[in-house]
């Protein structure tokens, strides 16, 4: 009894300051990413982000960080462990990219012409909240079945999806930014690699990420002085006027419950289908990744209850969606690193309190104006590298080819996302739809349709990556039945139009589900002076083609409507390929099973004594 009374677990210690700086910088970079991606790709104003999204981010960070900090106190007393370190928690980096680029940006592009930029961005925000809600519900339910799901899904598939996202849209894309503005980005990158790769300790034990951001920020503002060195660094100067204007926006922002906005999107089921191929797999991956991070903490000596830890992880994401955020939160990787810094529970609680004060008092705009994204780009690149490296290190060595296979759909997606932007900047006279339509024997690069099909509409490449990598890992292990199941799922989803199928309207990629009305085309012979497909107007199409033509169902279609070029592709050939592969794998599985049964019977049957005597 006296020992129990004498046991003390510190509310705060020196290591908590180190842990706070590291965790705070990590979350701060995610916030800068949210602002950058939402303004650049979703057409959102900074005011909308700071008044609607960031308060939801604050709520989610407060929920999780307070719980995991209090949980560390409970576990420390339960296990009499004075060195117990709280689980690190924050905004999920892969989900920021997945939801901004593959949920919100496509919806914004689809509805921008119909609703206008302002209304389209608000619709994208509401759809992002619902996608976040779906991910949160999956994360919460994972508290009850995550272990079973992890047993049936190869780790290579789960980590392969993150590796694909990490090496392309996170590490590669932001390395482009670093070398576009090298004076701001390259030196902080060197500082960060010194700190994280070499484990170098800087004076006063300042975290390398914090130093990198501060150095990059000082360089950016130094280049914005009257010396006008920005021309040399290849970047626009920081604006002192905008920084002062951001201070005028500092003030209390009341978090608002966003249930009505969520119900508005739920009343439009066509929007829900647009992002299920992103939110569902990302929710599953986040949940299982959190489970693995809990196990990593247990290996380091801190045993947290799996069910409550995963449940609160999901509740934090649900709370984010209910109060305006579109971005899930998660239990971070790296618990052993925070423990090695000497962090306990205070760093987690302080992190939640810090961002709550920042975002509920309107400091988000100031942070965006004060810290250039290039200063934090090195941290983003490092996160992408670590995510990719973990996919190879934390899976069986034999599964490395399956993880590598996961990179192909992501590379296709990166090209498909970037290509229309580059074409627009170049003032290209042709669109993606026109380029796909005009491909022929003399085309220099005829693989554009395959590139778009591999990426798929609604960023279905995330789900494609999961299925193909799981099938590859099962084949490496010669688990033919499991491989057939994964391939069969891919065949069914492709036939339904959830994978690989797409519609192009100029440069915008739309979904093309099985139940959607096919694009109508008239079959006509092209005149000699105009080789290639004939593009007909809407009236001609209606007069010359019935709406349920079998030919239309089985082949790509082109259509010119009101000055726009349309192209549609049913992925039935791909579905047939998956289906035939499924049948092949199933037959091999049956054959392998019979062979194993025969071998087992032969091992159990007694030896033939006559043959033994003859041999003797």
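^ Assign residues to that structure.
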């Amino acid at each position: 009894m006296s020992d129990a009374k004498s046991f003390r677990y510190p509310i705060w210690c020196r290591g908590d300051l180190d842990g706070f700086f590291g965790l705070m910088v990590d979350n701060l970079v995610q916030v800068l990413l949210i602002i950058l991606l939402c303004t650049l790709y979703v057409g959102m104003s900074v005011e909308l982000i700071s008044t609607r999204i960031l308060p939801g981010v604050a709520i989610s960070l407060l929920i999780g960080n307070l719980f995991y900090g209090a949980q560390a106190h409970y576990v420390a007393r339960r296990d009499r462990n004075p060195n117990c370190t709280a689980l690190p928690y924050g905004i999920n980096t892969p989900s920021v990219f997945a939801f901004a680029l593959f949920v919100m940006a496509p919806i914004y592009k689809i509805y921008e012409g119909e609703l206008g930029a302002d209304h389209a961005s608000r619709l994208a925000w509401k759809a992002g909240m619902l996608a976040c809600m779906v991910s949160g519900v999956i994360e919460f339910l994972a508290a009850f079945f995550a272990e079973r799901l992890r047993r049936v899904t190869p780790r290579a598939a789960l980590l392969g999806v993150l590796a694909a996202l990490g090496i392309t849209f996170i590490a590669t894309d932001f390395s482009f930014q670093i070398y576009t503005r090298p004076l701001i980005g390259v030196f902080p990158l060197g500082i960060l690699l010194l700190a994280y790769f070499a484990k170098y300790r800087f004076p006063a034990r300042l975290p390398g990420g914090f130093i990198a951001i501060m150095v990059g920020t000082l360089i950016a503002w130094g280049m914005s002085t009257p010396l006008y060195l920005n021309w040399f660094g290849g970047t626009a100067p920081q604006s002192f006027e905008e920084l002062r204007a951001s201070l005028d926006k500092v003030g209390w922002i009341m978090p608002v419950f966003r249930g009505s906005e969520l119900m508005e999107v739920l009343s439009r089921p066509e929007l829900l289908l647009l992002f299920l191929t992103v939110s569902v797999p990302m929710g599953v991956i986040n949940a299982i990744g959190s489970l693995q991070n809990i196990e990593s903490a247990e290996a380091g000596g801190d045993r947290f209850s799996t069910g409550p830890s995963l449940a609160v992880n999901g509740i934090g994401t649900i709370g984010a969606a209910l109060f305006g955020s579109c971005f899930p939160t998660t239990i971070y990787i790296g618990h052993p690193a925070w423990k090695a810094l000497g962090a306990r529970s205070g760093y987690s609680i302080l992190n939640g309190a810090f961002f709550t004060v920042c975002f509920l008092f309107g400091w988000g705009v100031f942070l965006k104006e004060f810290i250039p994204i290039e200063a934090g780009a090195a941290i983003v690149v490092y996160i992408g590298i670590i995510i990719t490296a973990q996919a190879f290190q934390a899976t069986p060595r034999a599964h490395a080819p399956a993880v590598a296979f996961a990179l192909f759909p992501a590379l296709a997606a990166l090209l498909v996302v970037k290509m229309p932007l580059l074409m627009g900047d170049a003032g290209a006279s042709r669109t993606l739809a026109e380029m796909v339509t005009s491909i022929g024997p003399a085309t220099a690069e005829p693989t554009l349709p395959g590139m778009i099909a591999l990426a798929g509409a609604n960023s279905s490449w995330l789900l494609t990556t999961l299925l193909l990598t799981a099938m590859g890992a099962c084949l490496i292990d010669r688990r033919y039945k499991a491989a057939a199941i994964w391939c069969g799922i891919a065949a069914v989803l492709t036939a339904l139009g959830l994978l690989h199928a797409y519609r192009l309207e100029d440069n915008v990629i739309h979904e093309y589900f099985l139940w959607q009305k096919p694009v109508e085309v008239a079959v006509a012979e092209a005149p000699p002076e105009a080789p290639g497909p004939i593009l007909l107007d809407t009236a001609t199409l209606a007069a010359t083609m019935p709406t349920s033509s079998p030919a239309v169902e089985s082949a790509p279609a082109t259509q010119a409507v009101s000055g726009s070029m349309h192209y549609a592709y049913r992925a039935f050939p791909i579905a047939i390929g998956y289906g035939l592969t499924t049948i092949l794998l199933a037959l091999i599985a049956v054959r392998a099973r019979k062979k194993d049964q025969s071998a087992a019977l032969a091992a159990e049957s007694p030896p033939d004594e006559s043959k033994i005597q003859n041999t003797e």
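Residues 195 and 208 are 5 Å apart (CA to CA).
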